[in-house]
Write a structure and sequence with these properties.
The structure holds 2 protein chains of 2 kinds.
Chain A lengths: L2 E3 L4 E5 L4 E3 L2 E3 L5 E7 L5 E7 L5 E3 L5 E5 L4 E6 L8 E8 L10 E2 L3 E6 L1
Parallel strand pairs in A: 2-12
Antiparallel strand pairs in A: 1-4, 3-9, 5-6, 5-10, 7-8, 8-9, 10-11, 10-12
Chain B lengths: L3 E4 L2 E4 L5 E7 L5 E7 L5 E9 L2 E4 L6 E3 L9 E3 L8 E8 L8 E2 L3 E5 L1
Parallel strand pairs in B: 2-11
Antiparallel strand pairs in B: 1-3, 3-8, 4-5, 4-9, 5-6, 7-8, 9-10, 9-11
Classes of the chains: A mainly beta, B mainly beta.
Amino acid sequence: AQSVAQPEDQVNVAEGNPLTVKCTYSVSGNPYLFWYVQYPNRGLQFLLKYITGDNLVKGSYGFEAEFNKSQTSFHLKKPSALVSDSALYFCAVRPHVYNQGGKLIFGQGTELSVKP
Amino acid sequence: NAGVTQTPKFQVLKTGQSMTLQCAQDMNHEYMSWYRQDPGMGLRLIHYSVGAGITDQGEVPNGYNVSRSTTEDFPLRLLSAAPSQTSVYFCASSYSGGTHEQYFGPGTRLTVT
């Protein structure tokens, strides 16, 4: 079965420190991987994606993520956290199968809290 | 562009009532999806569509119906509401090719008493 796991329900970071939000996946074939962010009482916003190519992808708001095929991971990172980064983060995978483009499988989410 | 719009924003239903959650997009996206968000469970796919006239079930389809008569609209129908359907519902859309990422609506918070 295809699945995404975010092993940490919550990550706490001091402002200015680097942050990592972890994601591992299990999917057949080559995955399309995504990170989304959700601020309170809002919809999800796209942060970045890995489709193919360079394993390090850069996205919005200074976030980046590293695709590691051998470890089936796609961890989200930022060199210096801001208080405004505090939000709920979701990792997602899209099956690389014909006519399944409307289908994302999400992890359970990680609450990021950045303290001043 | 308005992007993905959803109505209503909030709804309270009694058990057994039916209703339709509306979703529309003005980006000419072929793919549209409905998810529900519950605490600690992330988002789970209810139904999705790869184009007008074509729909398929996701992970948690029971108790919900969809249809896709136009590219723009993808309504979600609750046939007979149950307390287990209390959730936040998100609609999303994406292109069939190219960038792949989904665009999400603001959500509908549904409470079933």
